[in-house]
Amino acid sequence: MKQTNNQIQVLHEQYVIRLKQEKRWVRFFQLLIFVAFFSLWEIASRNHWIDPLLFSSPSTIWKLFVQKIADGSLVSHTGITLGETIIGFMLATFAGTFFAALLWWFPRLSKIVDPYLVILNAMPKVALGPIFIVALGPGFTSIIAMGTIISLIITTIVVYTSFKEVDPNYIKVLKTFGASRFQCFKEAVLPSSFPTIISTLKVNVGLSWVGVVVGEFLVSKQGLGYMIIYGFQVFNFTLVLLSLLVIAFLATIMYQIVGWIERKLIKNR
Amino acid sequence: MNFLVVDHVSHTYFTEKAAVTALENVSLEIEKGEFVSFLGPSGCGKTTLLSIIAALIQPTKGSVILEGEKVHSIHPSVGYMLQQDYLFPWKTIEENILLGLTIMGMNSNEAKQRALDLLSRIGLKGVETYYPNQLSGGMRQRAALVRTLATDPKILLLDEPFSALDYQTKLKLEELVWKTLKEYKKTALLVTHDIGEAIAMSDRIFLFSAKPGRLVRTFIVPKELRNLSPFHSRNHTTFSELFQFIWKELDSLEANE
Ligand SMILES: Nc1ncnc2c1ncn2[C@@H]1O[C@H](COP(=O)(O)OP(=O)(O)O)[C@@H](O)[C@H]1O
Ligand SMILES: [Mg+2]
After folding, report:
1. Count of domains forming chain A
2. Is B63 helix (H, G, I), strand (E, B) or coil?
């Protein structure tokens, strides 16, 4: 008996070791791709396999990065874009959930507006950009409107669908206690839709970046989107690529934060 | 005076495609403290009748009278327990069992304490901070019973509360529920399609037929079984006699269809 126990323990240790090895290999290859990509880029650029004027090189981008950090301009542009994105993405999530709640509360309203939601959802929202700029002025407000509208409709639709799909028996339980419609919403409908709301957050993060960057293209005053369009106009592609890398980095961080919130909030299901 | 009267109740569900008559002209009376069962094949309108008694739906015809008063809206004297526990997975067991009190605005410390005491009486001491998915099926159904009893209803409606459990757990829970309800002198109305369960637990059995749902017969469980707990009742000789009798009745019902 004791011997078999030992054997199992040994087998388990081997299993854990194999798992760790597997993990290490995956990490290794991920790092390898990263290093290879940037090295190859650098080498290709130095040897003029690719046009350094168009594709720049990691070292040039790095130099520009250091310079832009030193003069403070990168930080301020990044701060503006990040702020706009966070506001746009929060507005879209809260307003979308609020609209979904309205639709749930007034079933007839939801039947009436259903085709309009479909049309609005199908429309490419960034095409509304010029209209926002005319209506709200070429600035902050328009850009935030872009960052919001791009995910607002889909959030409304997805969250409303999840409100509708709540198991009616939870509502039955509440009703047997004489719960009001608001209590049903607060105790059953909203909490059981939390996982859906969180997963729309993940999608909204990406979408809001798109909306905000396009907004900054159009308004062209400040922010990372402005840096891209400016770099493009003066043919400074190092600036364009630097902005792109910063956006990729920040979008990833935001996505990770949402993932962390998700794990915190829905650990009990 | 009768505690609960179901007076010529009929109910028809309307859908786009059809009108389904779930219940037709059902009348029955239940005394205070009585334990009765609704027995019948699935689809014979048992859940519909419970929902009507609980005022979750209004009958197409007829009325329900509780303690001399016509039932119009949801009544705090009626406790309803569903087929599955439907504990809210995002709430702890404590939050779950206090749900009814919270909704009804009766969450005095006294009421809370009574609910928690009941939880430990029913063998669930120490799980207050757990979440439902950390409990077994039987424990969850017991917690659901506490949730229903916490608001101190006068009559309990139990809609196939044991049907999702394995046999052994089911027998244990029958025993526990029976004893708890007798102890608190509750009137109870159990829906089941299990003949044995109906005989073991109740004082009277109402037999329903399907399509449309009708009350076809009432059986009075003999005195010697009524006072025995479900487990002992199942071992009594009278039990199998009554079982055979009801079995034949159900069989002939199906044959007539
Ligand atoms: N919400 C509903 N809409 C339409 N038909 C329903 C609805 N609920 C139940 N029914 C129908 O009414 C009949 C009785 O259902 P139910 O009361 O659930 O029976 P039981 O609980 O005895 O199985 C069934 O034929 C069922 O299809
Ligand atoms: Mg049923």
Report:
1. 2
2. strand
Flag if A178 and B78 touch (Cβ within 8 Å).
Answer: no
Q: Would you say A246 and A74 are in contact if contact means Cβ atoms under 8 Å apart? A: yes
Among the bound ligands, the one closest to the CA of B49 = 1
Which chain A residue lies closest to B144 (C-alpha atoms)? A173
Ligand 1 neighbours by CB, cut-off 6 Å: B 13, 15, 20, 22, 42-48
pLDDT digits (tens, 9 = 90+) for A185-220: 999 999 999 888 888 888 888 899 999 999 999 988
- The pTM (predicted TM-score) of the whole model is 0.85
Instruction: Let me know: does B230 contact B174? Beta carbons within 8 Å.
Output: yes
Chain B residue whose CA is closest to A190 = B90
- Using a 10 angstrom Cβ sphere, with 0-12 exposed, 13-18 middle and 19 or more buried, the burial of residue A47 is exposed
State both tokens at A93: 């999530």
Same domain, residue pair A44 and A127: no
Fold of B76-191: Rossmann fold (3.40.50)
Residue appearing with tokens 């109305």: B189
Q: Is the ipTM of this complex over 0.85?
A: yes
Best residue in A176, A180, A187, A193 for a mutation probing chain B (most B CBs within 10 Å): A176
